[in-house]
Amino acid sequence: MAAEAAGLTRRGAFVAAAGLLFAPAALARPRLPGDEPRYDAREIGAVPNEQAIGRRYWAPGLNDGFVPQGLTVFRDEILVAAYRSEALEQDNGPARIFRLARRDGRLLGSFALPATYGHPGGLAVLGETVFVANSGRLLSLDFARSCDTGECVPLGERLIDKTMGPSFLAASGGMLWFGAFRRTGAPSLYAVPAERLLPGDEKPVEPGDATLTLPLPQIVQGATFDRKGDLWLSQSAGNRPAFLSRLDPKTGAVLARYPAPGGIEDLGCAPDGKLWAVSEAGSKRWSRWDTFYPLVFEIDPGKLTA
């Protein structure tokens, strides 16, 4: 009995110790707006340039297996495009655009994208039109009607020469800017006038349609323009260090480069000048990465350090 009691005491001590080991992770995870991941108990990881990161929201659809990709800021909303996949080998799936309130991260609604947009890598807004990028395709949406009906209401579609991507999108000066994600080689950034992309001219878009072509760094996942007109790029590839780069939009010269959270995807710029981004690190598909940061997050460019 004494031996048995001692064993129970030791087991109790072990359980208590285990509780102490695991409790801090649960307690350290902050309460953030959105649907907290239930499939991974890790706390949010420390990331580079944390001092520049402001508001943070859980990326939408994580518990349903959605992997965030495209992002843009439209008025007071953050739009996030995501596809559903929990398997490493599956890089396409049913995709949706989620609408978050920029102020507090509330989910305002969502709607499904066509089946041909199974990896929606980029979002951008020109006027009242929302554009969605998927390699070799560009979709323009009637966003107001899509929100009202809860269903995707396309305005038109353009086929794009796949050497141009589009893997991501940015909008400025009446043009869409896009390029292809490349791990090697010398990719390019293309600026194409909006009228070439709206309904009317149905011919596929080719490199010759660009009014400006710039050199592009490798592993670009997202792009946006800040209020001064500089071009910002997010760069990441799998479980590797990630970066934000600020470029001269006339020459493509890299003006600055900053470490960023791993898995960073697309970018947007809010009217107040803050950048917004989303990371896929810690989604179900990429839950084995070192970085756990499946968040939509705000970045103050003035607080970034190289």
Largest sheet: 4 strands, antiparallel
- What is the average of the pLDDT values? 91
Q: What is the name of the CATH topology of the largest domain?
A: Lipocalin
Determine the strand fraction and express it as a percent band.
35-45%
Helical element count?
2
Which CATH first-tier class of the largest domain would you pick? Mainly Beta
Please count the beta strands (DSSP E, at least 2 residues each). 20
Number of domains: 2
Q: Over the alpha carbons, how many angstroms does the gyration radius reach?
A: 21 Å
Helix content: 10-25%
The main sheet orders its strands as 1-20-19-18
Q: Could you list the spans in which at least 5 consecutive residues all have pLDDT below 50?
A: 1-27
Principal-axes shape call: globular
InterPro entries: Quino_amine_DH_bsu, WD40/YVTN_repeat-like_dom_sf
Describe this entry's structure for a reader.
The protein is mainly β and 306 residues long. The chain folds into two domains: 30 residues; 273 residues, Lipocalin, CATH 2.40.128. It has two helices and 20 strands. The longest helix has 27 residues. The chain starts with a helix and ends in a 7-residue tail after the last strand. The N terminus is likely disordered.
